[in-house]
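thought: fold this chain, then report.
action: predict
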Amino acid sequence: MSATRTARERARAELTQEIKEEARRQLAAEGAQRLSLRAVARELGMVSSALYRYFPSRDDLLTALIIDAYQSIAARVEDADAARPPADLRGRWRAMSRAVREWALAHPHEYALVYGSPVPGYSAPQETVGPAGRVPIALLRLARDAWASGTLSPDADGPPLSPLLARQTEQVAAAVAPGLPGPVLARCAIGWTQLFGMISFELFGHLVGSLDPSDEFFAHAVERMADLLGLLPAPPPPAA
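observation:
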């Protein structure tokens, strides 16, 4: 009985994956707004009623695709961060930034689903919040490491935060980055939004005719954002 149940669960997991893969193909061809459970079922040779046992509605399927996209890009960023020496803070920022861009260029339609225009009529449920937060939390982890080690340059803070922004950054820090000063968290927010904004401009064709191809511009901007974040270059290796 246990073996039968395991086989059934395995078959369900495989079919669930097939459904999502077909949905991603339709996402690329038709866009999220036109994603249809009936069309997915038809392409897979299923009756709609059978597919509804896996995803009761289009929104449930969209949510699964959104969570998968967030988890995929976050895994790429976290792996890139882990591959660098912990003390190489600037190198970790470069690696994470490149990971975001490489994932976006390889998965443009999934990137558009989670970082592009909202899908009309769809409201993301609470279960998407955790996966969506993994990439910014990775950046905050880098900032906390820099702050704790005393290697985060204080010169990048700029003018004092307004009272409202100070309260906002303090609240965010208390929730996800305890001990990180508000001005440092504000720098992280600037770096995070500029990184994704720059990638969105490239991906959606806004740099064509100006800074396209964008490799050199991206590399230059990542270094300037590292300056803004206050990330100092890695210390030289000890003399032999």
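thought: worth noting. The two ends are 64 Å apart (CA to CA).
final: tokens above.
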